[in-house]
Specification:
The chain has helices at 28-33, 38-42, 65-75, 84-90, and strands at residues 15-16, 19-20, 26-27, 46-50, 53-56, 80-82, 107-109. It has 144 residues and is an alpha+beta fold.
């Protein structure tokens, strides 16, 4: 039986003491910042996962769903999260047969102009510190 902590997907530490880990998934910019040349990226030491995203050829996860999802998130500059059938596959959920041929990575993006929403009540609702939680017309979640 798996516990909740068994299901947490962590992003591994990709660089330690200047050495790139085998399971690293990094953008071209991050790799060049570490001193990797474009010639080295085209060589046998790295595998291109997506446009601008590479992993070491020694990565034990090559071809896995998790690696594809991590590459997609790196390609978006970490502005997206994995969702839908892709996220369910990562958690080992058995999907209906209609998703069997769907090999896409599903991502959810936050809007560029996203602002945190304030917890406001609509003008017609009576909520807040002055409201009576026992009042049936109250829109707050008071005791019933």
């Amino acid at each position: 039986m798996s516990t909740k902590t068994d299901r947490i997907i962590t992003v591994p530490k990709v660089v330690r003491d200047g050495i790139i880990a085998d399971n690293a998934v990094m953008s071209v910019n991050a790799l060049t910042d570490l001193g990797v040349s474009s010639g080295e990226l085209r060589g046998p030491g790295f595998v291109r996962l997506l446009h601008g995203v590479f992993t070491p050829a020694s990565n034990p996860e090559l071809g896995s769903e998790g690696l594809k999802c991590r590459a997609a998130v790196v390609a978006t500059d970490s502005r997206a999260i994995v969702c839908g059938p892709s996220a369910l596959r990562l958690f080992g959920v058995q999907l209906p047969s209609r998703f069997a041929a769907d090999t896409r990575v599903h991502l959810l993006f936050r809007r560029a102009n996203h602002q945190p929403q304030r917890n406001r009540c609509p003008p017609t609702a009576r909520c807040g510190a002055d409201s009576n939680p026992d009042d049936p017309g109250n829109a707050s979640d008071g005791p019933n």
